[in-house]
Amino acid sequence: MSDAGGQSLAKGALSAVESTIMGIAGTSPAFSIAVTTGTIYAAIGTLSVGSLLYSGLLMLGLMFAFASLNRVMPDAGAAFAWVGKVFGPTWGFFAGWGLMVASVVFMVSATLPAATATLLLVAPGQLDNTPLVTGIAAVWLTAVTAIVLRGIRHASYAQVIVTIAEAVIIFAVMAAAVYVFAGKPAHPVSLVWISPAAFSFKSFADGAMVSVFLYWGWDVTMNLGEETEPADASSGAFWAMINLIVFFVVLMMVILIALSGQEIEASSTNVLYAISAKIFPAPWSYLIVLATMLSTVGALETQILQFSRSMFSMSRAGVLHPRYAAVHAEWQTPWAATLVIWGFGMVLLFSSSYMPSVAAILQASIAAIGLQICFYMGLTGFACAWHFRGLLKTDRRAAMTQTVFPFIGGIFMAFVAAWSIPTFSPVVLTVGIGGLALGFIPLAIGRWRNARGGTAPA
Fold it and tell me: What is the CATH number of domain 16-448?
């Protein structure tokens, strides 16, 4: 597929292994577990292990939906293209819009932690220096954007290096924690942690609200579907999800073995560092901070990739201005769309740093991201189930992964959204639902532009 200028993305540039690594890095494993453990533990205690297991298995149903649709309709827009094909262009537009809004908010909310982690390693006395933190965050954002701009191969190489370094450090800390604390665990290991009977309706829902955000990001493999062979992209998504489920469940068990409830609460911003500090003396204990920083940077890259590919596809289809479908002739990247998210990121980054009201809104937006995730992923699950519904009569085995599991995944996302909405503050609801509602403006502009030009979105 090509843009108006005849340029196309780099077809077949990523292998199945690279696609898998992209999917793993997209969830920002170290960063996500470090900052969400306190929240999920406060909500459901040791049942956090079971919550991550069962939410991951339900998310696997959505993975089957994305992979199945990617095999028959590979498109950089992923959810936008598929939902639009099945349910119509308006629903497709909002599926893509929900992803882009979530990507912008997460990208900005992650740059500041990357900056503070950098200072913690090189100049811990400057952590309260707001201009310096903001400046370093801007440097990280610009550097990662430049890597993505230069081509998917450069982005892939960077992601592989970052993810391997992150994994080596985390697995070293996990192994040391098991060795040191297995004989005297803070929480004795129990099958109750994963027993379905231990969950109430409320505890399952509360855990799922956090787990959805923690698992989000693996679907970047599908936004790179035009730059990966369809079979490799689908395989990458599957193995990324399997690895993530095992990793999150095992890591949560290690955290419970190593830290007491009081320690988890006291170190809610980075439980991995709390474990490392109990085992290793400084400066070795700071290696986990490096892993968290690398994880955050990797997530920035994948969010830029998801946003830019979605905007590229939506512009190519005519629902956004065609200028954003421009592809660099040499690098084969959607350079205009990539610069758009960089620009949004820089504006919001400096605004949040110097305007307390904006900073508070962005903090609330982290929770609001969950609504946008549930919206576009749930729609994709339902779209897949409807598209392949004929298999229920002709091939029941294939129907399990292409109809039944995707439908269950869609129901799961709808359930999480319905449960969480009443618990959110007015600010979170305004950002979460309002962010989606803002999409009516570009949707109307696109339709007006197409009507004047006598064309309709593809």
Answer: 1.20.1740.10
Q: Which of 140, 109, 137, 302 is nearest to 219 (CA)?
A: 302
Chain centroid to CA 56: how far? Answer: 14
pLDDT digits (tens, 9 = 90+) for 62-111: 999 999 999 999 999 999 999 999 999 999 999 999 999 988 888 777 78
Question: What are the backbone dihedrals phi and psi of residue 2, each rounded to the nearest 5 degrees, phi first?
Answer: -135, 165
Select from 417, 444, 41, 375 the least CA-distant residue to 205. 417
State the Cα–Cα distance between residues 383 and 429, nearest whole angstrom.
Answer: 25
With contact defined as beta carbons under 8 Å apart, do 305 and 224 qualify? yes
Q: Which of 417, 408, 354 is nearest to 385 (CA)?
A: 408
Alpha helices in 182-316 (DSSP H): 201-215, 220-223, 230-258, 261-266, 271-279, 287-316
Q: pLDDT (tens digit, 9 = 90+) per residue, 317-373? A: 989 999 999 998 888 889 999 999 999 889 888 887 776 655 565 566 667 788 889
The DSSP code for 382 is H
Calpha distance 292→311 (Å, rounded) = 29
Largest CA distance in the chain: 73
**Contact partners, residue 426, CB within 8 Å, separation at least 6:** none
Peptide bond between residue 74 and the one before it cis (omega within 30 degrees of 0): no
Query: Domain locations in the chain?
Result: 16-448
Give me the residues paired with residue 241 across strands: none
Helices (H), 283-404: 287-316, 335-354, 356-387, 391-394, 396-399
What is the C-alpha separation between 337 and 360, in angstroms, rounded? 27
Angstrom CA distances, 197 to 50, 192, 194, 206, 303, stand at 11, 8, 9, 16, 37
Would you give the DSSP letter of residue 403? Answer: I
